[in-house]
Amino acid sequence: MAINKKIKAAKHDKLTLRHKRAIVGLLFISPWFLGFLIYYVRSLFITISFSLSKINIAESGGYTSQFIGLNNFKYALFQDANFNQLFVNSIIDILIDVPFIIFFSLFIALLLNSKFRGRGLVRAIFFLPILLGSGAVANTLLLATQNIQGGAGAVASEMSGISGVNIDYFLSIFTDLGLPDKLLDYIVDLIGRIFDIVRASSVQIIIFIAALQSVPHSLYEVSNIEGATTYETFWKVTFPMVSPLILTNVVYTIVDSFVGSLVVDTAYEAAFVNYNYGLSSAMSILSTAVVCVILVTVGTILTRKTFYYN
């Protein structure tokens, strides 16, 4: 027994630090992986099967399927009146929102990571949208947002009629200053959806705060000794150290934006309102495939620019 224990101990000692970290990583993701195999793999194959079939609901319960090839995909892409437009708009919204959400989250995290009175309360306020983002509370917030935006819009319209100053006036000023039209359109679109963007930044702010608190304080001491300015310290120390979490937040933001897009609502309506499960499955596969391509592209680009301290 003692010999066997020594042999096992010797084998255990042969594991390199990289192998030990790999084992810890596999153990960490094993609950998710088991859940994926048990609950998602079967659903994934059923969705693919439905997308290639015409599903008929039987009156006595259950369903029958008839293989029709790619007809559901062709209908979604070339015949459906709304899917293409909603799909393109959703992708554009994701590409517009993601950079702003990331920079906004990092900026707020930097502010919340500094020392000031009431810091815990302010952090809780920024995290409240997550706690209040479900059920009746979410609907109430949505209604309140619509009322606020409608009231603000009405007031702005009345004021513009009296003073002659409206959003076109300010846009003309920025145009005269030489700002590109695409940049102005980007800013105007962001302002129109500022509430949704702030509400979608809560998780990212928490992640960035955790990243900022994990930066070794000795690095800041060295930068101070070397006489680095705040600007230099941010770009030479803070930004590289939190860059791995930028990739995490970008992936999370893309997925979160897609889940809340109108494309998902359209697929849901096709399945559970019109009972066209084949078309709904085809829409889901098309949109998921495009989002996966975006994730792979963005992930590949950011991985090359990410700095890993260890």
UniProtKB/TrEMBL annotation:
Keywords: Cell membrane, Membrane, Transmembrane, Transmembrane helix, Transport. It holds the Pfam family BPD_transp_1. GO terms for cellular component: plasma membrane. The chain crosses the membrane at residues 21-41, 86-112, 124-144, 190-212, 233-255, 275-302. Coiled coil: none annotated. It comes from the Bacteria. This is Lactose ABC transporter permease.
